[in-house]
């Protein structure tokens, strides 16, 4: 991965010694760290000191890498390798560009599609469960389906681990809850919020110190969407006793993939330093759940619907009708000759190669020049600086706009 960073920096003209913005899992504060320092810590070659001078290994997480640009453009070789991996992981659903059952891949090139990845997550880990700060991903829900591939696990240092290589490929521990258990899980978190803590940085006498507070004192809008809860083994046992809820609890090893259906609450704890690559997708089976969670997001002040599920459904419906018409599996008379013709025309335009825009050599006009131009130009010749808006699906073009 360090080589990929160097290749990316050289290609895009950046300094080789790039800096990352990473998160400390103990209190989820962000910090800036050099690329070399981050990966030295990833390999276990560095130790930090706390406020009292005691040495410790931090739990750092680099999220959504690369943070600027698309994975496909910034890490081309890794993107190609990842697509080959997806070829054996239900590519009909997971392929980000050509999955016929992935609604997220059906956006036309003229529309602004959501960024569903892939993205890389690089984080440190530790085998003993110490409580708060263990989890590199706290309990949360995703709006879409996802597949998470563990591509690398940093082996233990024989000097620090007693030379044991047992379970050398064990990378992360997952807890995934059923959709049907979400309400019970939320009720449990609300009832026991005074047992959960959140650590943050606060200034005390001119120094920055860690302040540990109960979640019941801090307050939260939604116990799962707030992403502040982490269930330890003790909490999981209490959840089973009080509500009869058990998650799928398992260890992910190097080279293994985990599928997370939309709406399934989950949390992740790294046993070792790990590199994971994840891509989101929207399956037809998960559309009702995605719509339900989008409605939940509308009621929260710090969340927004970036998935555009309804648009995904509309564009996918258009694409499906086009395929049926082209393969002559659908009689145009069933949907109407005019609609069938519009669908086929739209599909033809979308498949044509896009011609690059010519850069105008004219200087921008001021208001007086624009007014004079308006007097001498016909409406069709009047210059416009507005971007061309994406054409809506043919079956919506005749729809009446409502307030």
From TrEMBL:
Record's subcellular location: Nucleus
A single GO BP: methylation
Domain JmjC residues, every copy: 96-298
Q: Which domain of life is it from?
A: Eukaryota
**Entry's InterPro entries?**
JmjC_dom (IPR003347), LSDs-like (IPR045109)
Which keywords does UniProt give here?
A: Metal-binding, Methyltransferase, Nucleus, Transferase
Which Pfam families does the UniProt record give?
A: JmjC (PF02373)
One term under GO cellular component: chromatin
Q: Name one GO molecular function term.
A: methyltransferase activity
Record-linked Gene3D superfamilies: Cupin
Q: Cross-referenced SUPFAM superfamilies, in alphabetical order?
A: Clavaminate synthase-like (SSF51197)
Region (Disordered) spans which residues?
Answer: 152-171, 346-403
Specify the protein name: Lysine-specific demethylase 3
- What is the scientific name of the source organism? Tetraselmis sp. GSL018
Question: Which taxonomic lineage does the organism of this UniProt entry have?
Answer: Eukaryota, Viridiplantae, Chlorophyta, core chlorophytes, Chlorodendrophyceae
Q: Which gene encodes it?
A: KDM3
